[in-house]
Amino acid sequence: MDIKKVYNSKSVEEVIDILGEYGEKAKVIAGGTDIVIALNNNAIEPELLIDISKLEELKGIKVDKEFITIGSATTFTEIVESEIIDNNLYGLHKACKMVGSPQIRNKGTIGGNIANGSPAADSVPPLIALGGIVTLKSIEGTREVLLEDYYYNPIKEKELLLNIKFERPKDNQILTFAKLGLRKALAISRLTLSSFIEFDDNNTISFIRVASGALAKFPMREKELEDYLLGKILEKEIIEGAIEALRNSMDERLKGRSTLPYKRIAISTILREILEEALAFEEGVKAW
Amino acid sequence: MVDISITVNDKLYKISINENMRLIDVLRDELGLIGTKEGCGEGECGACTVIMDGEIVNSCLVMGFQADGSSIVTIEGLEREGDLHPVQRAYIEAGAVQCGFCIPGMVLSTKALLDKNPNPSDEEIREGISGNLCRCTGYNKMLEATKKAMEYIKGE
């Protein structure tokens, strides 16, 4: 590490100005759970560090008529303890609860989970499934990007990730999540899936987004699976068919990868879990 | 160098630290509080756990300057007028301490859990210490120790 200057920033404006002036020489730090490791290993060598973890403007969960907005410096613990992120948003609660360990969740932030860009970021698949929109700001202006497109056009040197927002779910919509790790705590995800499903009055899936983690270079939508499930009723054969549909996508995407045979088998349990949780919700049973 | 004010074990320190220091470096190298251990340095083992503003954190993943204005409790802060904290006493009595390297962090995670939730279930205890790895005990002794500590704290 060769940091020359540090800032406990006082406002978003100040952070934007410093980033605008110093560009690649400056790095933003929030929870530090990824970046301090990178700094300590000299994997990145910024001259300036800007702490945003205490910026009230970037903290907390806000609800308005249309959207739920989570500030980028909101910690996983704050999300897990929030009454807003519950019931039909249970999948996001579950994902945040499964991140790392209590220590990591007390410090790690949702903005960091997105900006760090890990393919195994636990909170990202549920946020993609929700149709999340990321807001980034720099001295040049503000831009909004769908989280599912974000990874093709990620955060730039002078940008600060302000928040992620998604539409408030309706009563007939449910977000679910499941993770495969090698142990319960402190395990990087080998596989995650999250589904956002709307059921119509006839128990038919009338809207669906499914997102995966650790099945590609970054978390992404599983469109082949979505196309298969749309308009169907979640019966046993349909769930089996869904597993095959996802395996088809995986076979193409992960061709030649040593982990593919393992993930092909493991995916069935994880996919069954998210669909059965959605089904239980639809039948009025809380799966959790 | 950067100036910070930091309260550690109820004592206020106003110190100048190197910008590159992590919280664990400040505690160990600046303040001489070497009860806090560095295990992996990557947030995987929890040996460096301290309580920061009421919540457990890995002190190897917090930069020193980020702790400006914070209140920290380390293992040195648990003793009460020469006596052990109930959690420490319970750990010894339950035989939950073997090599001891994980213990400062483990004890602080247990204390923070009981501060927030005086009656945790077995599952909540296991969850509470899930960020602290121990390669000696297999965790059952910690579970036992935590239950003992619950009784001691209730009896106070």
What does this structure look like?
- The complex is a heterodimer of chains A (288) and B (156).
- Chain A is α+β, with helices and mostly antiparallel strands.
- Chain A folds into three domains: 5-51, Uridine Diphospho-n-acetylenolpyruvylglucosamine Reductase, domain 2, CATH 3.30.43; 56-167, 2-Layer Sandwich (Uridine Diphospho-n-acetylenolpyruvylglucosamine Reductase, domain 3), CATH 3.30.465; 173-282, 2-Layer Sandwich (Enolase-like, domain 1).
- Chain A is built from eleven helices and twelve strands.
- In chain A, the strands form three sheets. A five-stranded antiparallel β-sheet of chain A has the order 4-5-8-6-7. Chain A has a four-stranded antiparallel β-sheet with strand order 9-10-11-12. Chain A has a three-stranded parallel β-sheet with strand order 1-3-2, covered by helices on one side.
- In chain A, helix 9 (223-229) runs antiparallel to helix 10 and helix 10 (236-253) runs antiparallel to helix 11.
- Chain A is globular and about 60 Å long.
- In chain B, helix 2 crosses helix 5.
- Chain B has five helices and five strands; from the N terminus they run E-E-H-E-E-E-H-H-H-H.
- Chain B has a five-stranded mixed β-sheet, sandwiched between helices.
- Chain B starts with a strand and ends with a helix.
- Chain B has two domains: 2-77, Roll (Ubiquitin-like (UB roll)); 86-155, DNA polymerase, domain 1 (Orthogonal Bundle), CATH 1.10.150.
- Chain B has helices at residues 23-30, 86-93, 103-116, 122-128, 140-155, and strands at 2-8, 11-17, 49-52, 55-58, 71-73.
- In chain B, 48% of the residues are buried.
- At the A-B interface, strand 1, helix 2 and helix 5 of A face strand 4 of B.
Identify the notable features of this structure and list them briefly:
heterodimer; A: 288 residues; alpha+beta; Uridine Diphospho-n-acetylenolpyruvylglucosamine Reductase, domain 2; Uridine Diphospho-n-acetylenolpyruvylglucosamine Reductase, domain 3; Enolase-like, domain 1; 3 domains; five-stranded antiparallel sheet; four-stranded antiparallel sheet; 11 helices; globular; B: 156 residues; Ubiquitin-like (UB roll); DNA polymerase, domain 1; 2 domains; five-stranded mixed sheet; 5 helices; 34% helix
